[in-house]
Amino acid sequence: MPRLFCACCGRPFERSSTRGPSPLYCSADCRRQMAVRRRAWTRADLIGPLTLAQPGGRDAERAPGHGRYAA
Q: What pTM value is reported for the model?
């Protein structure tokens, strides 16, 4: 049987049976890990991309001694 490679960790593994579609993952741990990643990716798609502070943007103009928590 042809050697397959896990879609999660990349490890080579042998297909245990020729029946049905070929497996994507080498173990139950990899299947579980990919399910966790899939949920995280879906949640990230719903929330949207993270935005980082832009140089010269609003956050760059704030002085550390000013504002709500200044002494």
A: 0.54
